[in-house]
Amino acid sequence: MRLKRMTIRALALGTVLAIQSSGAMATDKITMIMNWTADSAHLGFAVAKQAGIYDAAGLDVTLEEGRGSAVAAQMVATGQADIGLADAGAALNVAVQGAPIRIVSTIWKSGQFGIQTLASSGISSPSDLKGKKIAVPPGTAMVALVPVFLSENGLSESDVEIVTANQNAFLGLLTSGEVDATAETPENIVVPLAAEGIEANNMYFYNNGVPLVSLSLVARDDKLAENPELFSRFIEATAKGWQAAMADPEASVSALRATFPGIEKTDEALLQGAAYSFTSVCPGGSGDAIGVTDDTTWTKIHGVMTGAMEFSAERPITDFYSNEYLPSTTVTCP
Predict the structure, then answer these.
(1) pLDDT tens column, 311-324
(2) Which member of 70, 73, 162, 225 has the greatest number of CB atoms within 10 A?
(3) What is the distance, to the nearest Å, from the Cα of residue 196 to the centroid of all Cα atoms in its chain?
């Protein structure tokens, strides 16, 4: 463990020195609203804060826990937060309704979201869900993504029974047999069930016809125009935070707990979840660019959304995202 701590400290120090070498800068306050309560999806942000990476970038960052991706996007749109972490699908649905926001960096370049079932259920493919009950949490990206997932796999909403339920009830609903599947992430379903000795399966949306990015950074157009350099600094420091977190997962969990002392999950559960989170940040493995989704992939995403999600095709996808604020030197996965 001592070696691990030295690793993250050394990497963070290198990051800090690299940022500082670009020149002194005044400290700017910035508030980020998260998609949900703190867990392994937020490790990189916590490391950037605790290791001084944000400080070195001249940023005084406040990280606030959220109440869903759609709410986070709306809070950014109404100026209640400077930047938000929200699922791309939910953020785009808010933007297409006229909210002056856009995605400026994709943190989870491949979404963790999917369908979880008990291994004992016999459900192993999307077609097996026909006639089954699927729990979907209200006010989240799942509301939009589940119908897309069904459509892309030859099913309609009428082929299943959608059960609206709070995410906190999912484990009980699944293990009691009240539902056959949940629409969540493996971190929140597979990991805790494994801790109880219950085997569960996961079907990722992006492996089953829905190539969508997930958790992304969202900002208002006017604030981006007023201070583009501020957002560029935040995005670069955040990417470096994720780079450091992946280099030392155990220390990143300690940083998360230091930032959010009220986390109820055990360190073991957070580490298990970290494996899924890091895979989503770096789907291309070592050397993959952190926070970057290229124009070609965005075009494919737009095709899925307009074809299966009834997303308006009147405006080009370039109206809803920008790569202009990404680091000039790519921050890569270790």
Answers:
(1) 888 899 999 999 99
(2) 73
(3) 26
